[in-house]
Amino acid sequence: EPKMPEPKMPEPKMPEPKMPEIPQPASVKAPVPPSVRARAPPSVRELASPSVKAQPPAKVQQPVEESDDDLDCEKTLSADAPIVRLGNAAPGTANSMRPADFGHGDLDEGMAADEGLESKRWALSGGEDGSMRLWSLEDHSCWEVLEGHSGAVRALVADWDEMLALSGATDGCRLWDLRSGTCKRTFDGVGGGCTALAAQGLRIGEALGGCGDGSLRLWDLATGESKSSVSGAHPTGVWALDVDWKRRRAASGGDISFKLWNMEDWTCLQRVDGHPGGIMCLAVDWSQEWSQEDRLWALIGAGSLGEDPRNLRLWDLKAKKPEPLLGPKDCVAAVCAKWADSVAVTGSWDANLRFWDLEKRLATRTLKCDFGRVRSMAVDFANMKVLCGSSAGALHLLDVKSEKEERQLEGHVGAVTALVARFALQP
Predict the structure, then answer these.
(1) I need a surface site. Which of 101, 137, 343, 377 has the fewest CB within 10 A?
(2) Which residues 6+ apart lie within 8 Å of 186 measured at CB?
(3) How many CB atoms lie within 10 A of CB 121?
(4) pLDDT at residue 327 above 90?
(5) pLDDT in tens, 406-415
(6) 72, exposed or middle or buried, with CB in 10 Å at 0-12, 13-18, 19+?
(7) φ, ψ dihedrals at 346, nearest 5°
(8) 34: helix, coil or strand?
């Protein structure tokens, strides 16, 4: 028998093992400390909550030497003066960019949410940065930041009982609800921006605005409509206003002229010229009747650079006779008078506050301001305290009796150009 060859089974080939790919290690990122992580800006309620407190005072820097020809280089506080650093109010947190229809229902709703808010002591400041800041003068904290203007805020009026405010800026005039931080109305017809304001009853009253184009405009605040106006009141712009709403008289200044107006038909009752550099501020004693027997006084600050006896004068408007108040060595930016006591306070660009006896026409006290130029001012005559706005963006609360600075409130970028305050409740 033939032998059959034995079949050979093919040897199975095992696949060569492949080494698994080792992934390259990813770059290790250092963990971000919680203190530097981005945080969303606080809401209005968070800003208004009593639990939000100002951060502790930071170390004070050494004062910077100030040159004689440039008082804008601001000095900082001395080491014994406390500084309030505000980290709880960020720009835009007041939702002021969303104007709403003005209605009593909106204001009443805000009133219910912040009941008792009107009983506090407040200050409202406006700056070259276009923002406004609401400050509590009880704990010296910033409660709100109001944004909406695209240019510098030049004038402010506040109705503290209603918690309403009227602002004038280079882009126009706006009405604000301070409880909610919202813009309730904008006003039209403001040529060249709104540079001066006077008002009564911000809820349903009237407001007189001085404009950059030199016109005066009277608004009905309940409707927002313009009631009357006069063009060309001051060719270079209106920079100061004072109004007697009862007698319908208005005083205005801006260029070299001071003018007294009848608001019923806008006839000019009086004109006084001779204020070099333009009128920056004024205060009128409206307590006297407009008659031949009575005197009408006006305290007028002007903007002539350097020392000029015409920068501060007390005018007898009946006789058209000025009496210079000697002392300021630069522009007088702010005046505040208490006519019943014949006293006044002025703030000027020579970095000094001066206190005046108007009967004697003499300065009774001069208070040096280490922060530099006084750009805006509010005065508490009862307690002899002055709140000043500076060129560096801070507010400075000064105690006149001790001649010391009590507080510094920081927040604005650039000069604080407008300031109003309620230091105590009215009886």
Answers:
(1) 101
(2) 99, 172, 173, 174, 175
(3) 16
(4) yes
(5) 999 999 999 9
(6) middle
(7) -125, 145
(8) helix
